[in-house]
């Protein structure tokens, strides 16, 4: 337990952390990787270069300072981050290393303001906070390992099929090398794949939603090719598209994540996706076809045009087999070929359309897509009176507050 004095000191630092948080976390990661480059085998290099990891950690530190005496308030965020940590292979032995460098970064950035008393208070607070993460993550590791056909950490899988879905998206079908069955998962969850790309010094990790329903002998992920080959993201997606072939091996974590379909509910649902955000929705839709074919479903999808509209044929087949489902499709830049056919709305999803077409505020809403898209959808749903607890969304990368995220 933290003393009253320690809590007071930590809470008093919240304003300066709000102002200097990003600078502190930038210094932190720089020093961390200089002294422990082996941790680059765990962290997503693209998120580092784009500043997303630094922003997420700054938000987390600020929240910890604000609620250090009410850590239960942070538990939902802790679980979301812990799912990602478990999927990436973060272990208890990493936390002391992180704590040491975080305190050094606070001291380095704040200078004389960071007195010995403040550093000691934050050291004590970090010990308590890190133990919360360790305990939650240990439970998640045990759960992943002890489920039928489960494992802890990473397991060797092999690519058994590659299927091009459209001009930008390719699906990979993955089966365990040891020929065992794969664990079940919640529709909407993701896996981490770990690759050793030729020419790269460190392993690379990427998290991808599973786009098939549970119950198959394989996992399916569907990967968008990043058009700019020079970007960090493009390095991995282009490798998966161009160089990974059937028979290749890769490491896979057990399914993870807190964004998934509530299978126990029969309430109407809206699946709202933009671009590659359609992948977890396909898992949900395939599951619903098998388990809840009469459930009321509205699928709202936004894409640039028909050339990059993924799973068009698969969705059409699923909708023909579902009893109470319909789709609204938006093309922002339809091609001339698109314009020859009906079945889509030209433009973006606008607030007026949402007001007119979404009337059931008690439905559950699942959202995935680019950050600006998700922010717009969440804001629109809240403005028409949908309760926060009925809005569920998936963000790939470090856990952040979409309402506060500025780098969009």
Structure summary:
The active site is at residues 95, 137. This protein has 408 residues and is α/β, with parallel strands linked by helices.
Question: What overall geometry do the principal axes of the alpha carbons give?
Answer: globular
The helix/strand class is: alpha/beta
- CATH H-tier superfamily of the largest domain: Globins
Number of domains: 3
- The CATH topology of the largest domain, please? Globin-like
Query: Taking Cα atoms only, what radius of gyration do you get, to the nearest Å?
Result: 22 Å
Domain Globin: 1-138
Protein name: Flavohemoprotein
Catalytic activity: 2 nitric oxide + NADPH + 2 O2 = 2 nitrate + NADP(+) + H(+); 2 nitric oxide + NADH + 2 O2 = 2 nitrate + NAD(+) + H(+)
GO molecular function: nitric oxide dioxygenase NAD(P)H activity
List keywords for this structure.
408 residues; alpha/beta; Globin-like; Elongation Factor Tu (Ef-tu), domain 3; Rossmann fold; 3 domains; 18% strand; oxygen transport; EC 1.14.12.17; FAD; metal-binding
Describe the overall structure.
- The chain has 408 residues and is of the alpha/beta class.
- It has three domains: 4-146, Globins (Globin-like), CATH 1.10.490; 154-253, Elongation Factor Tu (Ef-tu), domain 3 (Beta Barrel), CATH 2.40.30.10; 269-394, Rossmann fold, CATH 3.40.50.
- Helices cover 41% and strands 18% of the residues.
- It contains twelve helices and twelve strands.
- The protein has helices at residues 4-12, 14-35, 45-50, 52-66, 75-88, 94-110, 116-146, 232-242, 278-291, 312-321, 351-357, 371-383; strands spanning 154-164, 169-176, 190-195, 204-209, 219-224, 249-253, 269-274, 297-303, 325-331, 345-346, 364-368, 391-394.
- The protein has a six-stranded antiparallel sheet with strand order 4-3-6-1-2-5. It has a six-stranded parallel sheet with strand order 10-9-8-7-11-12, sandwiched between helices.
- Helix 9 (278-291) links the parallel strand 7 (269-274) and strand 8 (297-303).
- Helix 2 packs across helix 6 and helix 9 packs parallel to helix 10 (312-321).
- The longest helix is centred in the first third of the chain and has 31 residues, at 116-146.
- The radius of gyration is 22 Å and the shape is globular.
- The two termini are 39 Å apart.
